């Protein structure tokens, strides 16, 4: 039947009993499969975990610029790991690092969600921020918000 129609006999499900075959144009079928695969890849978004390293004695202005950088990374959809690195005798004062992280938490509370609570490593303190989940509004909610 496939030869009469100038098409191919393609085995669709080999593990089924009895095996399932279809009569179709195999070249067109492969083309459509790759097209679907490309579309699926295009819509998929990989989230990266970006790391920002800070020192416990960072100046307030420098910290504000880091806050802006974190906001920009979060707006792109990336997760951000903020690590406060201690050198030398700074390790004896972890409260300075916690103070820096508290400042970040205060400035990013509307724009970020804390994924991982404070993680104390050997010579660093770190937090992981992720973008907040955005709920889509219905058209009725949008129109009532505009009024």
Descriptive account of the structure:
There is one protein chain. The protein has 147 residues and is an alpha+beta fold. The chain folds into 2 domains: 8-39, no CATH class; 49-130, 2-Layer Sandwich (Translation Initiation Factor IF3). It is built from 4 helices and 6 strands. It has a 4-stranded mixed beta sheet. A two-stranded antiparallel sheet has the order 1-2. A hairpin with a 6-residue loop joins strand 1 (8-13) and strand 2 (20-24). Residues 135-147 have low confidence and may be disordered.
Task: Summarize it.
With 147 residues, the chain is an alpha+beta fold.
Describe the structure using short key phrases.
147 residues, alpha+beta, Translation Initiation Factor IF3, 2 domains, 4-stranded mixed sheet, two-stranded antiparallel ribbon, 38% helix, disordered C terminus
What series of H and E elements makes up the topology? Answer: EEHEHEHEEH
Looking at the chains present, what oligomeric state does this protein adopt? single chain
Give the N-terminus to C-terminus distance in angstroms. Answer: 65 Å
Helix-residue proportion: 25-40%
User: Which structural class is indicated by helix and strand composition?
Assistant: alpha+beta
Overall 3D shape? rod-shaped
* CATH level 1 class label of the largest domain: Alpha Beta
Average per-residue pLDDT, rounded, comes to 85
């Amino acid at each position: 039947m496939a030869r009469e129609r100038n098409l191919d006999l393609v085995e669709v499900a080999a593990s089924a009993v009895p095996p399932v075959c279809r009569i179709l144009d195999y070249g067109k079928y492969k083309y459509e499969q790759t097209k679907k695969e490309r579309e699926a890849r295009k819509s998929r978004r990989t989230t990266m975990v970006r790391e920002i390293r800070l020192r416990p004695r960072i100046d307030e202005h420098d910290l504000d610029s880091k806050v802006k950088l974190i906001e920009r990374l979060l707006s792109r959809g990336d997760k951000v790991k903020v690590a406060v690195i201690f050198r030398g005798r700074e390790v004896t004062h972890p409260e300075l690092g916690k103070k820096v992280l508290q400042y970040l938490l205060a400035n990013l509370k509307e724009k970020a969600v804390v994924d991982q609570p404070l993680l104390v490593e050997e010579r660093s303190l770190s937090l992981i921020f992720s973008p907040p989940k955005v709920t889509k509004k219905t058209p009725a909610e949008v129109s009532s918000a505009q009024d």
